[in-house]
Design a protein that fits this description.
The complex is a heterodimer of chains A (475) and B (498). With 475 residues, chain A is mainly alpha-helical. Chain A has 3 domains: 2-158; 178-301, no CATH class; 314-459, Leucine-rich repeat, LRR (right-handed beta-alpha superhelix). Chain A has 18 helices and 7 strands. In chain A, strands 1-2-3-4-5-6-7 form a 7-stranded mixed beta sheet. In chain A, strand 3 (362-366), helix 16 and strand 4 (388-390) form a beta-alpha-beta unit. In chain A, helix 4 (45-71) runs antiparallel to helix 5. The radius of gyration of chain A is 33 Å and the shape is elongated. The model of chain A is unreliable at 163-167 and 295-300 (pLDDT under 50). Chain B contains 12 helices and 17 strands. In chain B, a hairpin with a 4-residue loop joins strand 2 and strand 3 (140-143). In chain B, helix 10 packs parallel to helix 11 (363-384). Classes of the chains: A mainly alpha (475), B alpha/beta (498). Chains A and B meet through helix 8, helix 14 and strand 1 of A and helix 9 and helix 11 of B. Chain B: It comes from Sphingobacterium deserti. Chain B: InterPro entries: Alkaline_phosphatase_core_sf (IPR017850), DUF1501 (IPR010869), TAT_signal (IPR006311). Chain B: It holds the Pfam family DUF1501.
């Protein structure tokens, strides 16, 4: 039986080659049939018949080899189903069509009716060939292998949005089971479209513990405690462009933080049960874990956790731009904007109110060295997605900052050169998201409030580089 | 008015010339059609994809802010180029083994198949001419030549095994700044301003500051715009005299008169553009406008005399001089004002050992002293103003220097020196989304070549563009029928430092 199994596999491998024969032949038959229909003086009939015969036989052969190939597994079941039955349909209908292309003889009336429509049959065959072929391509190259590489200009014309990446978050990384809650979601996001339950490329599946321990055709992928020997990690850090690097080029890459988490988990023994707090954590890992908790994705996708911003009113933006207020979207195809008033020193509280029209769009507000005052901070507090706020060298004082407590997303506030005092820190400490506060050239001196536990990194500047004797040695 | 109508007349005549030519071309419909199609398709593929037509509204201003591919962490860049190529072996790449080999002949195996700019025959090894220690939490190795800089190493990431393929200054500088050793490509500053525009419409988007003395060997092409519209080329500002040549109005010409003159010229140019659609015409219009605004804005921003004393003390600046220190302070001021790319060139780093100034143990140390305080101050000052996290600071030369002592034409040099070396040198970056305190890449025991974490010039460019929000493989400009990239067909993001 072993021999037959192996023979089946061997025959199966011919499918991708042989499958092109019926495609070419059937399309050729169709092309000749069309010409034959509209240019009667050409005598194609026997050629059509012959091509159809070959095409039908080739289609049947393709079906058989395809069946053998599918038995090896590793393909996504749904797509495989479509491809298989469409392929069979092509074979069947092409045989029928071949039978309809016969010299006119006496036949039953219904056969004659069918014969008059034989060009239609051929058309259906060709359409089915196209659809089946596309599914075949999807099986080999993965979902969206054509759509994803459409020229960007065409994509936007056709309204195809770039694929969105799912974000997973944790409420408490320390209490979470590392494998189940951290590693498995990463594998799901990055690996399992090829190494999953349905499709096991290289014999490897990563969708559960058993499959992971089992490894792939090349043996185990997980060596507990040894990242270098664990293919699961080693393949991720091969140089870009390396043939064996995973995820392969063309697939969405895995982030550096995710690689580090995988390495952390393997190095700590690749345990499937233990919780975050039970594994040793370096400072770096701790930072990454905290990021997961906050729902922050990797910083490269700055602002990614935000809902899509509403469209921008073109006429208003035009008016602002004309006044010198720069409205810059943070990235192509993104309606989040940064506002910069560097060329408009007259920028006032009134302008802030105007900007409320796009309050759901503004993530960064650079209104340093402008005429905004404390009263304007009431308006600033109404910007729900504001992340970075520049107020340097404005007339804003502690009193104004009190209003900013209502900001939900702000991480950075620049107060350089303002009249704020120590009180500012007490006010701003109540913003849970705030991490960076710049207070150089202000009355704010201490970086701690005394209450402790502040996550805010306060930079009060005043750095000096003391004179060193070597500063004046000339060689 | 008379002059204006004369100019308009001339423009009209030009137009008539064009019409006759068009008339002929109209006859070849197929030809025209395919040209138009090519143009359309070219427009679809090339250039930066904008988020929204709304940001395109000012077609007359090519420097209007534009969006990158994805949200970038860095908004501006300060590039400190040490022209002449400083020795990594006396600054950051500590090689104790090289001490032991000092004055011994270089092993043949290192020389086999290698070509050097000046070394001939068998040179002797030259031990590190500096004392090293580790600094900061990151434990970065820094030599005693940079005592101030050693205090900010935790803000910095080092690339220890950068390599290039050019061993002469001119081509290597071109490669470092344009991604190609031959003339004609846009510099990285031009690419960045082309991609992102400028946030401040009163200042150039790309400013170049030189420390005086020699300009880079590769000439002004290192800040040229290549095939990009010339509006994106670097504007060289001087820290002594008029910041930009001829920026002051000539005697007897007032601001108003200048304005009406520029208006008239721009009117003519707009007509010209409507007819011929040459982007260079737009560049010209934008440049006239920019020059007019710059007359007020530039002298203001370029004046460091008004800075408080403690800032001068921090940087070691002396107003009115042409110096690297002054340029560092200016760079901070420019970035603060929304300038996109500030390119600094220092000179005198070519330590061959031909004379005291160009020697590793004398002149080189003077150079180190000259840059140590200002570049450290720059990082500190950007940090205290909350600018460092959005400003990428890059420091480096065009190549490194050999672990061997130079023996020009196979004879001993009068002073200690090192030859040009392409296989390994150090570049550091700080701010703008760079990780803190990473040292990436390692060289072999004597610092001859990188053994791990090698980074090419293209890799450095890819990383810089990434921090600014660009996928270097998609950031292209259509020229002569093919989309060009800063990184050509190479370059990988150095993930370890971002």
């Amino acid at each position: 039986m072993m021999f037959l199994e192996e023979l089946a596999l061997f025959i199966g491998r011919w499918h991708p080659l042989l499958v092109h024969l019926p495609i070419g032949m059937l399309i050729l038959a169709f092309a000749m049939a069309v010409v034959d229909r509209y240019r009667k003086q050409l005598e194609y009939f026997s050629a059509i018949r012959f091509t159809l015969l070959l095409g039908s036989v080739a289609a049947i052969v393709a079906c058989i080899t395809g069946y053998f190939l599918s038995r090896n597994g590793g393909y996504e079941a749904d797509v495989l189903g479509y491809h298989k039955w469409l392929g069979v349909a092509v074979a069947v209908i092409s045989v029928v069509t071949f039978l309809l292309y016969r010299a006119p003889t006496h036949a039953k009336i219904w056969i004659q009716v069918l014969r008059s429509q034989r060009l239609m049959f051929l058309l259906i065959v060709v359409i089915l060939v196209g659809v089946a072929g596309h599914f075949g391509g999807t099986l080999t190259h993965g979902e969206g292998y054509m759509k994803d590489v459409l020229p960007t200009a065409l994509k936007s014309t056709l309204g195809i949005a770039p694929p969105k990446e799912g974000v997973f978050t944790l409420t408490n990384a320390q209490e979470a089971v590392v494998y189940q809650d951290i590693i498995q979601p990463i594998l799901k996001q990055r690996c399992q479209s090829c190494h999953g339950e349905k499709k096991r490329e290289g014999g490897l599946a990563l969708h559960n513990q058993q499959a992971m321990l089992q490894g792939g055709d090349g043996g185990a992928v997980l060596v507990k405690g040894d990242t270098v020997k664990s293919e699961l990690y080693a393949r991720l850090v091969l140089p870009e462009g390396h043939e064996k690097r995973m995820p392969p080029s063309g697939r969405s890459p895995i982030t550096m933080d995710q690689i580090k988490l995988i390495s952390w988990w393997i190095a700590a023994g690749a345990d499937f049960e233990r919780k975050g707090k039970e594994l040793p954590q370096s400072k770096e890992i701790l930072t990454i874990l905290t990021k997961l908790e906050n729902g922050h994705q990797e910083e490269t996708s700055l602002y990614a956790a935000l809902p899509a911003a509403p469209p921008l009113p073109k006429d208003k933006i035009q008016a602002w731009q004309a006044r010198g207020i720069k409205i810059m979207s943070i990235a192509a195809d993104n309606n989040m904007v940064m506002v910069n008033a560097v060329n408009y020193a007259q920028f006032s509280n009134k302008d802030l109110e105007d900007l409320l029209a796009i309050k759901d769009n503004i993530v960064q507000l650079k209104i340093g060295r402008t005429a905004v005052t404390n009263a304007g901070m009431i308006t600033v507090a109404k910007f729900p997605v504001l992340h970075r706020l520049h107020l340097e060298y404005t007339a804003v004082t502690d009193e104004g900052l009190l209003h900013l407590q209502r900001l939900k997303k702000v991480t950075y506030i620049n107060l350089v050169g303002t009249k704020v005092t120590q009180q500012a820190l007490i006010h701003l400490q109540k913003i849970p998201t705030l991490t960076h506060l710049y207070a150089f050239n202000t009355q704010l001196r201490e970086t701690e409030t005394g209450e402790g536990n502040s996550k805010i990194r306060v930079d009060t500047g005043n750095y000096v580089l003391p004179y060193l004797p070597s500063d004046s040695v000339i060689f | 008015m008379k002059d204006l109508s004369k100019l308009l007349n001339e423009a009209q005549q030009q137009q008539l010339h064009a019409v006759t030519r068009r008339h002929f071309l109209k006859e070849c419909v197929a030809g025209i059609g395919s040209i138009a199609l090519g143009g359309l398709l070219g427009n679809c593929g090339g250039g930066v994809q904008r988020a929204d037509g709304a940001f395109d509204l000012n077609a007359l201003n090519p420097l209007v802010p534009k969006s990158p591919h994805f949200p970038g962490k860095a908004k501006s860049v300060i590039y400190l180029h040490m022209a002449g190529a400083p020795s990594q072996l006396e600054l950051f790449d500590y090689k104790p083994a090289l001490h032991k080999l000092h004055n011994q002949p270089c092993p043949e195996s290192l020389l086999a198949g290698k070509k050097f700019a000046f070394i001939r025959g068998v040179p002797k090894m030259l031990g590190p001419q500096a004392t090293f220690a580790q600094y900061g939490q990151s434990g970065a190795w820094v030599s005693d030549h940079l005592p101030h800089f050693s205090k900010v190493v935790d803000e910095v990431s080092f690339l220890k095994a950068v390599h290039t393929d050019q061993f002469n200054h001119g081509p290597a500088q071109l490669f470092m700044h344009t991604g190609n050793a031959r003339l004609g490509r846009p510099s990285i500053g031009s690419w960045v301003t082309y991609g992102l525009g400028s946030e401040n419409s009163n200042l150039p988007g790309f400013v170049v500051l030189t420390s005086g003395g020699k300009t880079p060997d590769a000439g002004k092409s290192v800040w040229g715009s290549g095939f990009l519209p010339s509006v994106y080329q670097g504007v060289q500002c001087r820290s002594k005299g008029d910041p930009v040549l001829y920026i002051a109005d000539p005697d007897g010409i007032g601001r108003d008169l200048k304005r009406s003159a520029i208006d008239a010229i721009n009117e003519v140019n707009k007509e010209e553009y409507k007819t011929f659609k040459d982007p260079e015409t737009l560049s010209r219009i934008a440049q006239y406008e920019m020059a007019y605004k710059m007359q007020v804005a530039v002298p203001e921003v370029m004046d460091i005399a008004k800075e408080p004393a403690y800032i001068h003390e921090l940087y070691g600046t002396q107003p009115g001089k042409e110096s690297f220190a002054n340029n560092c302070l200016l760079a901070r001021k420019l970035v603060e004002q929304g300038v996109r790319f500030v390119q600094l060139f220092d000179w005198g780093w070519d330590s061959h050992g031909t004379n005291p100034t160009d020697s590793i143990d004398l002149g080189f140390r003077n150079k180190c002293r000259e840059i140590d305080r200002p570049m450290t101050a720059l990082i500190m000052d950007l940090k205290q103003r909350g600018l460092l996290d959005e400003t990428l600071v890059v420091w480096g030369g065009e190549f490194g220097r050999t672990p061997m002592q130079e023996n020009r034409d196979n004879s001993d040099m009068p002073f200690l020196g090192r030859d040009h070396h392409t296989d390994a040198y150090t570049i550091w970056m700080a701010g703008g989304g760079i990780r803190n305190g990473v040292s990436y890449g390692e060289t072999d025991e004597i610092g001859f070549t990188g053994v791990s974490g090698r980074a090419s010039v293209h890799d450095v460019h890819a990383t810089m563009l990434h921090l600014l929000g660009f996928d270097h493989e998609k950031f292209t400009y259509e020229f002569q029928g093919r989309p060009f990239r800063l990184t050509d067909v190479e370059g990988n993001l150095i993930q370890a430092i971002v």
